[in-house]
Write a structure and sequence with these properties.
By secondary structure, the chain is an all-alpha fold. It has helices at 4-17, 24-29, 31-43, 53-56, 58-62, 72-83, 89-114, 122-143, 154-160, 163-169, 174-180, 191-212, 217-223, 230-236, 270-293, and strands spanning 255-258, 265-268. It has a two-stranded antiparallel sheet.
Amino acid sequence: MPQELTHWLVARATAEALSGTAWEAPLAARPDVLLLGGVAHDALYYLPRWAPAACRRVPAVLGGQDGQDTHAVLRLAAGRFRAKPEPWLPAWLAGLATHVCADATFHPFIFWATGDYHHPDPALRTAAVQRHRALEALVSLHFLGGTSDGGGPGLARARSMSLGRRLRRARGVLPGIMRRGGLCEAAGVPEELRVPCQARAWRVFAGLQAAGRLPLLPEALYRARRFLPRGLREILALFFIPSMAAQLPRVQGGLAYRDPVTGEERRAGLDGLFAAAVGSAAELLRRMEPFVFGSAAWDLPPGLPLDGGTAGAMRHFAHPPLIEF
């Protein structure tokens, strides 16, 4: 899950790429809903462990971890708009589509670079999770103009980008999003759990994102990380930590990596991956346009898993990992 700020940047750039299409006006009218859709796949990751299992499983289902169709939520939301064209739905749908494309584009590199996120050994798994999340924060910092000495506009820009502010601006349509946006329905969550689970997830997500943007707390916790329990270290890895910026050069410039599923050698830079994600999202939304805004039949094939971007288990990882946490 590329960090939420990367998802927002991809969503904004995709909206610009759709100028002159039927998407242009509804996306311009609801920019905050576009950005919420851009991170919605990840929202339910923030539910506590005691939340209903059906709700906690939503991100895995939407991401196709067990072979589910990752386009299913797009088809559901698009069908809802055709049945009842509420003005916020196109922006929500477009955000969901940009998330799918950003994950499928960035994840092969991120998973390869940081290790097996699903390793059966708890110690190896948590180390990979921490590196994965820390790399995603570094990727966002790169796109925001961060530098390895902690200078540049990156940290200041990151601290100004608030999920809580987006939720407040969209509060008039949030009940509709949680009822009709398709997020939980596509994952088979019982109807009575859908709104409460989403409401809690967004609150926790916004709270942690706010904590991660504080100027002093993330660095202080990072310096004490060896004394923190595993779960807190995994949360800390989501934050923007100034001293982690020293590792930015490891992920900048040309990147040689392997597809974590196939082992195929690849070469790309972060800026190239960003352009590919935007191009893929714009192409997907143009292809959906006749169905969403017209009467054409849905013609998208089932979507591939979002973790590796390719069907199959991930077996190829960097040794040693590209970054440390």
